[in-house]
Amino acid sequence: MTDRAEAGELFIQRVFAHRIERVWDAWATPGAVATWLGPKGSTSHVVEGDIRPGGVLRMRMETATWSMFTLFRYRDVVRPHLLTYEHCFCDAAGNLIRPVFFEIWPLKLLTTVTLETMSAGTQVTLRWRPLDATPEEEQAFVENLSSMQGGLAGSFDQLAAYLAG
Amino acid sequence: MSESLSPIFAALADPTRRAMLERLAAGEATVKELAAPFGISQPAVSKHLKVLEAAGLVSWSKTAQTRPRRINAVGLKHARDWIDQFRDFWPDSFDRLDAYLNDGRAPR
User: Does residue A157 have a pLDDT over 70?
Assistant: First the structure.
């Protein structure tokens, strides 16, 4: 695995000024994950949490405008270096669904989290890519990744500024 | 942009529709009024409006026979919030993780 983004995946990397065991616990303890995971202003509650190979973490995540259930299905749980899980959206009963606003979207995103000890702390590398997706679903993921970072968000900003003005 | 995108993204991907939204942001307008500045036919305008309406970005006033269209600010805000949160999901989460690691409290 390279140390940069590969085609068709979301890649994010950051060094946290803490020991690897502490960073690992933040990823591998259900209550801790619910505390920090999610966009600004969101809150999450653990519905079901069992982080081990074959286990799941199911959370209800909500903001002022939406709420949804998130389901993580764990594959590799290798303390304190490697965590892989399927990141899915689900309904209240745990059935996999697509997130609101997307007609076509991968049902499963494979998340790979690697932790490495660096001089400044612990480097966390996260990769997010479609799993078992059709070509159309993969395309939707890639198009949204790029458009989120570029033109579409920009045009929304312009429109919002216009509306506010 | 392909048709694989959701109605909201598909609606906003078109520059004419974005311009129509900006026009509507300034106030209600009939199909005839919307057609004039864009140099396109009224049926073409109606077609664009259908896409915007299906995406929940535009609604119409039932009081007048000309059915003037207006912007659906709630639909637009929800879409924008969702786009921001989707785009910022991991950067935000990493910020919140950092805050959690630093002081162990629930981050904002």
Answer: no
Q: What CA dihedral angle connects A133, A37, A68 and A79, to 10 degrees? A: 60
In chain B, what are the domain boundaries?
Answer: 1-71, 73-108
Chain A residue numbers touching B73 (CB-CB < 8 A): 163
Residues of B in contact with A17 (CB under 8 A): 101
pLDDT, tens digit, 9 for 90 and up, residues B92-108: 999 999 999 998 665 65
Nearest in space to B73 (alpha carbons), one of B15, B21, B19? B21
Higher pLDDT, A140 or A44: A44
**Helix/strand/coil for B102:** helix
Tell me the pLDDT band of A2, cut-offs 50, 70 and 90: low
Q: Which residue of A has its CA nearest to B99?
A: A36
A151-164 and B73-103 helices cross at what angle (nearest 10)? 110
Domain covering B1-71, topology: Arc Repressor Mutant, subunit A (1.10.10)
CB proximity A123 to B under 8 Å: no
What's the distance, CA B4 to chain centroid?
17
Residue A147 CA to residue A158 CA, distance in Å, equals 15
